[in-house]
Amino acid sequence: MLLVFANVLTLGMFWFNRDRPRIVRHAGGPAEFIIKELNLNKDQQAKYLELVAAHQQSVKSVRANLKEAKDDFFDLLNEPGVTESKKTDAAKKVSIYTERIDIITLDHFAALRALCNPVQQQKFANIMKEVTRMMVQPGPEQPEHGGPPPDGDMPPPPFAGDR
């Protein structure tokens, strides 16, 4: 029941905050922002971009399952007389996939933090709220609801050395 409440609260926050000013977009997205703000050296950049690719791969199948679970949840609108129990079960399934993505993402950032030296780790602590906001806010490649791009694939992150 707690997970259902958390999901409803999250959806409510997105709904009520939709007209608030958006955060400033950083060219290159979160990956480029992190590389610049943490001043990652070439070796760190290469390792970080490997982490990004692994994270995207890990999250891809979970996102597909999440989409299916959400489709099943909202398909309940087409069933007359849906019980509270059935609604709760469908919402729990959605929350399980959301939780998996969150844990994968937390582990991803822990691995990034481990790549950093002590000075960078302090900067890391200071920029994480902005990074997570960048990830939640819809960008030009994302629909307004903040989900993944239509085909579920994330574009590869830009490499800072390509400029």
Structure characterization notes:
Helix content is 67%, strand content 0%. With 163 residues, the protein is an all-alpha fold. It has a single domain, classed as Four Helix Bundle (Hemerythrin (Met), subunit A), CATH 1.20.120. Helix 3 runs antiparallel to helix 4. The chain is elongated. 6% of the residues are buried.
Count every beta strand, where a strand is a DSSP E run of 2 or more residues.
Answer: 0
**Outline:** elongated
Radius of gyration: 18 Å
User: What would you say the CATH architecture is?
Assistant: Up-down Bundle
* Overall residue-averaged pLDDT value: 78
- Uncertain stretches: 19-26, 138-163
Produce a short descriptive summary.
The protein is mainly alpha-helical and 163 residues long. The protein contains five helices and no strands. It has helices at residues 2-16, 29-38, 42-75, 84-115, 118-136.
Task: Identify the notable features of this structure and list them briefly.
163 residues, mainly alpha, Four Helix Bundle (Hemerythrin (Met), subunit A), 5 helices, 67% helix, disordered C terminus
